[in-house]
Amino acid sequence: MAETPTVGPERSGRRTIGTVVAGVLLVNLAGAAPAVLSGPGSPWFQGLAKPAIYPPPWLFGVVWTLLFTLMGVAVALVWLAGESDPVGGGRDGWTARRVALAAFVGQMVLNVAWTPAFFAAENLLAGLVVIVALWPAVVATIWAFDRVDRRAAALLVPYLAWVTFAAVLNYRFLALN
């Protein structure tokens, strides 16, 4: 008689860890990809007047890596929601997860669009338009994540704070240049 594979805590734990690692890697790769094509090293950007609130350039890489990591964990929590929660696994739970994941993808598209709009197009106004659209998209994602997993929503709050700062910074660049 063949043994039936069990889904015990060990297998479930490995799946959870694998999903979180995959989420972190995918979000970091997607988020960092536009910076490979264009970024702050261009002569155009170097020639811009910098606002007084412009942080040291090295800080952007550190902050974005941290934020993308938190976002990856958050999206993994939403993805995994319902597997151990009977409410989250039902039809309403699946709908909430789908809405949350769609909101995440939508805000991520806007996030990724900012770098080409600002740096590659060398267009401060286009960057501002994208980031102003990103802000409510992040709020909507936090709201949708909260309906699925409060921890996932909380992990996105620092991201919202940084997007708020980045929008003000983008505006200051536009005002000065």
Overview of this structure, please?
There is one protein chain. The chain is mainly α and 177 residues long. It has one domain (19-34, 56-176). It contains 7 helices and no strands. The protein has helices spanning 9-37, 43-46, 57-80, 91-120, 124-148, 150-155, 157-176. The radius of gyration is 19 Å and the shape is elongated. The model is unreliable at 1-8 (pLDDT under 50).
Q: Beta-sheet strand percentage?
A: under 5%
Please bin the fraction of helical residues: over 70%
Order of helices and strands: HHHHHHH
Number of domains: 1
Question: Total strand count, please?
Answer: 0
Describe the largest sheet.
Answer: none
Average residue-wise pLDDT: 90
Judged by helices, strands and strand pairing, the structural class is: mainly alpha
Q: Low-confidence runs (pLDDT<50, min 5 residues)? A: 1-8
Helical region count?
7
From the N-terminal CA to the C-terminal CA, the straight-line distance is 76 Å
Radius of gyration: 19 Å
Overall geometry comes to: elongated
Please give a handful of descriptors for the protein shown:
single chain, 177 residues, mainly alpha, 78% helix, 0% strand
